[in-house]
Design a protein that fits this description.
Number of helices: 1
Shape: rod-shaped
Structural class: alpha+beta
Number of domains: 1
Number of strands: 9
Distance between the termini: 91 Å
Largest sheet: 5 strands, antiparallel
Strand order of the largest sheet: 1-2-3-4-5
Helix content: 25-40%
Order of helices and strands: HEEEEEEEEE
Length: 176
């Protein structure tokens, strides 16, 4: 018994190669789109996380704020305005920042939203906290003494607002 082996013709090899190429194109195309979608979702998650952290810190600040101490100032060197105030910072690991401290909220030259904190008694030690990045514009609305509205526009095009019901004499404010 002699078994004869038949080899593949050039046409059969080319058809197989074309079919494999089509399958690979579909697989890599869907893989590429899933990677791109994953990157977009990761970016949105990061922005939501940043926004949540910023909101938590601002809520802590503005819920323990002396509403009579709020002052809005516009700097000639910056296109952004600054809001300054006195608030109760609670207990901090660094004791000089515990209790009543002075604070400023502004956008620096690198487009970060900065909370600057220093002790009420002495203005020597200053601590800057970066709350958010990529800020294009920030608007403070202090039309009433009871509500502070902060509108933030980012370079990425997203916009959001924070609204805080400011404390009365009992020092309890609430986020709206």
């Amino acid at each position: 018994m002699n078994i004869q082996r038949r080899s593949f013709t050039l046409i059969e090899v080319m058809i197989a190669f074309c079919l494999i190429s089509i399958v690979m194109y579909v697989l890599f195309g869907s893989f590429k789109s899933s990677v791109e979608m994953s990157a977009k979702v990761g970016k949105v998650k990061l922005e939501i996380l940043e926004r949540g952290i910023t909101h938590q810190r601002l809520l802590k600040v503005f819920s323990l704020l002396d509403s009579t101490s709020i002052k809005q100032e516009t700097s000639k060197s910056s296109k952004h305005s600054t809001i300054s105030f006195i608030f109760n910072n609670g207990v901090e690991p660094s004791l000089i920042y515990s209790g009543d401290v002075r604070g400023e909220l502004f956008v620096n030259s690198e487009n970060y939203l900065i909370l600057r904190v220093w002790p009420s008694k002495s203005g020597e030690a200053v601590r800057d906290e970066k709350l958010d990045s990529d800020i294009e514009e920030i608007v403070w609305d202090l039309k009433t003494k009871d509500v502070l509205i902060i509108n933030i526009k980012k370079h990425s095009g997203s916009e959001f607002s924070y609204a805080f019901l400011l404390a009365k004499s009992d020092n309890k404010g609430y986020s709206i």
